């Protein structure tokens, strides 16, 4: 898993470049190509050294950085000179395309940041599931699929449900999280069984519909069976399972 | 000193809990106050609804509190149901359809476990619209009906096979599947240690 | 003459509709009044929530009106929720989503050109979360899929319409990338010298 630590810190070569520009306090409109290329390459070397899987995009970017750098070292020929509408000479900067791309990317990176804030803000609001209005409805309408819904409406509904469902979980989790240990649950089950002095339906031990609770109860039962503290009975296949104590067993964990 | 708006907090809690409501115990534990105090806040909220022009009321059934609409507005709610009955599928129906599509074959009880609410109506709607049908019976005592999607479902959403349904992302899957197996495994490991 | 409590009725209707919400049109048709009047009632309800110690608020998300809990009570409600982890979208997904939101309709290749990396995975995640959908095909040889945002996208970020997206590039970068401001100041100084 170690090699998976990952370039996750960066969303790609553009992101890495923006980071370097920021860290080196470089003007994005006047990037010192030699410096940034060196930094970029050293970063890639480090990643390789750490046996990180350097995605091909990073290498492609490295190549184009080197290309820009070398272009800038070559002196201009007369025929390459460029003039704007007013006939004033200007230089085409080999960095232009890169800068443009970086600025474009940065715009969306900022927008992503804004979305993140909206996401957080939205998560502070809770909605309620639609009420079951069955009692108000007349008989099911038999009109055939002219439903006017798409697959995405269905997926959207599912997402809404999942978001909402997180809330509907009863409180038991929080309470049990504070560790109803298996040992404790074993004690509870024993106390329970001793109190009724008879057998109890297996399923009645699982009253709290919380998965953690279910797992703990189940493990507690297994443990009690292993310790010969309780018996499980089933009269036939698929019949109800009963749990019963031996008579006069000592309380688990009391010694 | 800042005054805490307990009434508002309880209203928000009950609202978010929806039709399931919250027990006095749950409320007390969230608010971290004595049961008696919680009861007082609930009483406040109840009176607030009665005195004001609110459309809601506080209902208590066996120590479980839930919000509900006032009876006197039921005519309008009825109208709402009737007017929305014609076109489109309700949120409830769409949710149910999604669950069936991804988890078929599935029983009604299982759907209700995922949704956390009764699902007779939406299921009925989906069957009447031929998007869903009974495709068998579950094993075990109840022999409950198993539901699945129909050919019309595929046609309607322009799918050739069920495999063309968009894959659910890992995180969605996780929520959906409850991750029971993992938890189980984790706990087992703990006991082994 | 009996005065009809429209505000209470609307509250009851919105309560029943839950996170499905109700459009202005739906409300208007159930109340059998003019849209303008419905809007007034909605405004009344909004103010009622703001002025009172209510735990609820009226919001307009994805072009429907919905009731929601007030943000200030979220701490208490979160106590009811199983620790939900961070849950938010990954950086890759957020970037991809931002590009789609502002440039839709857009092909995957176009997104990748801007991000400079492969974007299959985030796109898949966004589709499975129903935040993004195929909205057509590009012209030309490849007839690549064009992507756009969904209604769920608006819902997820609490936006009424796409027009409510923050203006692109207008955001202040100050709290985003530290050092930028300093850099700017430096440059400013340089030009003064």
UniProtKB/TrEMBL annotation, chain A:
<keyword id="KW-0159">Chromosome partition</keyword>
<dbReference type="GO" id="GO:0051301">
    <property type="term" value="P:cell division"/>
</dbReference>
<comment type="subunit">
    <text>Component of a cohesin-like complex composed of ScpA, ScpB and the Smc homodimer, in which ScpA and ScpB bind to the head domain of Smc. The presence of the three proteins is required for the association of the complex with DNA.</text>
</comment>
<dbReference type="InterPro" id="IPR023093">
    <property type="entry name" value="ScpA-like_C"/>
</dbReference>
<comment type="function">
    <text>Participates in chromosomal partition during cell division. May act via the formation of a condensin-like complex containing Smc and ScpB that pull DNA away from mid-cell into both cell halves.</text>
</comment>
<dbReference type="Pfam" id="PF02616">
    <property type="entry name" value="SMC_ScpA"/>
</dbReference>
<dbReference type="GO" id="GO:0007059">
    <property type="term" value="P:chromosome segregation"/>
</dbReference>
<protein>
    <recommendedName>
        <fullName>Segregation and condensation protein A</fullName>
    </recommendedName>
</protein>
<comment type="similarity">
    <text>Belongs to the ScpA family.</text>
</comment>
<dbReference type="GO" id="GO:0006260">
    <property type="term" value="P:DNA replication"/>
</dbReference>
<keyword id="KW-0131">Cell cycle</keyword>
<dbReference type="InterPro" id="IPR003768">
    <property type="entry name" value="ScpA"/>
</dbReference>
<dbReference type="GO" id="GO:0005737">
    <property type="term" value="C:cytoplasm"/>
</dbReference>
<keyword id="KW-0963">Cytoplasm</keyword>
<keyword id="KW-0132">Cell division</keyword>
TrEMBL record, chains B, C:
<comment type="subunit">
    <text>Homodimer. Homodimerization may be required to stabilize the binding of ScpA to the Smc head domains. Component of a cohesin-like complex composed of ScpA, ScpB and the Smc homodimer, in which ScpA and ScpB bind to the head domain of Smc. The presence of the three proteins is required for the association of the complex with DNA.</text>
</comment>
<dbReference type="InterPro" id="IPR036390">
    <property type="entry name" value="WH_DNA-bd_sf"/>
</dbReference>
<dbReference type="GO" id="GO:0051304">
    <property type="term" value="P:chromosome separation"/>
</dbReference>
<dbReference type="InterPro" id="IPR005234">
    <property type="entry name" value="ScpB_csome_segregation"/>
</dbReference>
<keyword id="KW-0159">Chromosome partition</keyword>
<comment type="similarity">
    <text>Belongs to the ScpB family.</text>
</comment>
<comment type="function">
    <text>Participates in chromosomal partition during cell division. May act via the formation of a condensin-like complex containing Smc and ScpA that pull DNA away from mid-cell into both cell halves.</text>
</comment>
<dbReference type="Pfam" id="PF04079">
    <property type="entry name" value="SMC_ScpB"/>
</dbReference>
<dbReference type="InterPro" id="IPR036388">
    <property type="entry name" value="WH-like_DNA-bd_sf"/>
</dbReference>
<dbReference type="GO" id="GO:0051301">
    <property type="term" value="P:cell division"/>
</dbReference>
<keyword id="KW-0132">Cell division</keyword>
<keyword id="KW-0963">Cytoplasm</keyword>
<dbReference type="GO" id="GO:0005737">
    <property type="term" value="C:cytoplasm"/>
</dbReference>
<dbReference type="GO" id="GO:0006260">
    <property type="term" value="P:DNA replication"/>
</dbReference>
<protein>
    <recommendedName>
        <fullName>Segregation and condensation protein B</fullName>
    </recommendedName>
</protein>
<keyword id="KW-0131">Cell cycle</keyword>
């Amino acid at each position: 898993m170690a090699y998976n630590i990952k370039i996750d810190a960066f969303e790609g070569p553009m992101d890495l470049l923006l980071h370097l520009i920021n860290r080196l306090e470089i003007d994005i409109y006047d990037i010192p190509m030699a410096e940034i290329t060196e930094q970029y390459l050293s970063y890639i070397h480090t990643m390789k050294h750490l046996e990180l899987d350097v995605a091909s995009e990073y290498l492609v970017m490295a190549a184009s950085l080197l290309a820009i750098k070398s272009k800038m070292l070559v002196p201009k020929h007369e025929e390459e000179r460029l003039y704007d509408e007013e006939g004033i000479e200007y230089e085409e900067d080999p960095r232009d395309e890169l800068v443009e791309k970086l600025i474009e990317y940065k715009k969306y990176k900022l927008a992503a940041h804004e979305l993140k804030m909206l996401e957080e803000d939205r998560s502070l609001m809770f909605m309620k599931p639609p009420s079951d209005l069955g009692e108000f409805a007349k008989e099911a309408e038999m009109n055939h699929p002219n439903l006017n819904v798409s697959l995405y409406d269905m997926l959207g509904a599912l997402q809404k449900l999942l978001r909402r469902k997180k809330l509907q979980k009863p409180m038991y989790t929080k309470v049990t999280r504070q560790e109803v240990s298996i040992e404790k649950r074993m004690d509870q089950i024993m106390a329970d069984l001793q109190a009724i002095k008879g057998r109890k339906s297996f399923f009645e031990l699982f009253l709290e519909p919380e998965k953690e609770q279910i797992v703990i109860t189940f493990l507690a039962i297994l443990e009690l069976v292993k310790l010969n503290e309780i018996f499980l009975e089933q009269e036939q296949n698929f019949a109800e399972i009963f749990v019963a104590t031996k008579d006069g067993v000592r309380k688990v964990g009391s010694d | 000193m800042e005054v805490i708006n307990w009434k508002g907090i309880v209203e928000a809690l009950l609202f978010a809990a929806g039709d399931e409501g919250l027990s006095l115990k749950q409320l007390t534990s969230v608010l971290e106050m004595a049961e008696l105090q919680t009861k007082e806040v609930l009483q406040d909220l109840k009176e607030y609804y009665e005195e004001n022009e609110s459309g809601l009321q506080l209902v208590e059934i066996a120590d479980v509190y839930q919000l509900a609409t006032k009876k006197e507005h039921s005519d309008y709610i009825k109208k709402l149901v009737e007017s929305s009955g014609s076109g489109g599928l309700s949120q409830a129906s769409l949710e149910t359809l999604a669950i069936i599509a991804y988890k078929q074959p599935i029983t009604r009880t299982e759907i209700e476990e995922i949704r956390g609410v009764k699902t007779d109506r939406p299921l009925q709607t989906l069957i009447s619209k031929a998007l869903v049908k009974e495709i068998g019976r579950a094993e075990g005592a109840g022999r409950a009906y198993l539901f699945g999607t129909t050919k019309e479902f595929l046609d309607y959403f322009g799918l050739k096979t069920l495999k063309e349904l968009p894959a659910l992302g890992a995180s969605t899957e996780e929520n959906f599947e409850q991750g029971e197996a993992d938890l189980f495994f984790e706990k087992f490991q703990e006991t082994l240690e």
